# Entry
Amino acid sequence: MKLGVYGGTFDPFHAGHRAVVDGLLERFRFDRLLLVPANIPPHKRNVTISNRCHRVAMMALAVADLDRAVISTVELDAPAPAYSVDTVARLHDLNPDAAPLSFVIGADSFEDLPHWHDYLRLVESCHIIVTARPGFDLEAGHLPGNVRSRIVDLRGVAADAVPLESTDASTRIYLTDDAYTDVSSTTIRERTRAGAPLDGLVADSVAAYIRKQELYTGSR
# Structure
């Protein structure tokens, strides 16, 4: 089974996240793409995050039409802090027929990768897919040579033009630019507080949920 894992705070899950999901499913043809809401991300310990129930509910609404996109609570159920390398190991235990799975990160996370907890073990244990906006300058000079040698650059390449199967047992780092929607959760929260419309930024069902639950109306 081809398994992808796309994690994040998802507060809320917005059109940019959906664009990434659609791009991943098209290019990598996953049998299943797990959407993994974070519990308390190690790099956001001092940031207030919406209740997990609200975040999961908004995600469910946003991907209700996608059979291959499934929400996983593997990090919500784990003790904090939940490091990515441990999440991948748990998912391999739960899905032994999917090893190695593909772990999705954003361009900012890719630039910060050497500072992640036990990142070399993460790189060796799974494929990594880096999603970036078209034209974003992804540099790999911050990575050691043995990590750079795993990079496969798919930027600017049509989703159906490249065979993605590895020719050996090594894990790969795929650079992609399939995410075309530049939206941020911070912008959505700010617009909600200001009473501005969210048209095109989140699914209509998510916008309705935010209004009904009166989310993001505080100072954050």
Summary: The helical segments are 15-28, 52-62, 84-94, 107-111, 119-125, 145-148, 185-193, 204-213.
